[in-house]
Amino acid sequence: MLLLTCLRRTKTKNFYNEYVNKTPKKLKVIDAYLLYILLSGIVQFVYCLLVGTFPFNSFLSGFICCVSSFVLAVCLRLQVNQENKVDFAGITPERAYADFIFAQLVLHLVVMNFIG
């Protein structure tokens, strides 16, 4: 049991050190945004469980917005990552950011209309 715990700690430290040393700052910023969106969705879901879903459209809009924003940010991270340059050869990072912003605008317009 102790050996497994030590192995987990070692792997976790190695993962963290590799992430800190090899990940570009742009991707770290996107990862921080992803963490924020994930935590925001969890807080909304826990609030829904504890308090209730009285304005159900508001809860649905907020939660769907979190999930959709998370998906869009993951797509942005995939497109901006230099290791995926072969897969997204025709898309420049500027184009990826512009697509992300446009998709976020459309998403938020839909969410605002759904809230009512």
Molecular structure report:
- Helix 2 runs antiparallel to helix 3 and helix 3 runs antiparallel to helix 4 (93-115).
- The chain has one domain.
- The chain has 116 residues and is mostly helical.
- The mean pLDDT is 91.
- It contains 4 helices and no strands.
- The radius of gyration is 18 Å and the shape is flat.
- The protein starts with a helix and ends with a helix.
- The protein has helices spanning 2-22, 25-51, 56-80, 93-115.
Give the key terms.
single chain, 116 residues, mainly alpha, flat, transmembrane
End-to-end distance: 55 Å
- Report the principal-axis shape: flat
Which bin fits the share of residues in helices?
over 70%
Question: Which spans have pLDDT < 50 for at least 5 consecutive residues?
Answer: none
Number of helices: 4
Question: Strand-residue fraction?
Answer: under 5%
> What number is the mean pLDDT?
91
Largest sheet: none
Work out the radius of gyration: 18 Å
Structural class: mainly alpha
Order of helical and strand elements: HHHH
Seen as an oligomer or otherwise, the chain set is single chain
What's the total number of strands? 0
Total tally of structural domains:
1
Question: Which helices and strands appear, and what pairs or packs with what?
Answer:
Elements: H1 2-22, H2 25-51, H3 56-80, H4 93-115
Subcellular location: Endoplasmic reticulum membrane
Organism: Callosobruchus maculatus
Family: Belongs to the DAD/OST2 family.
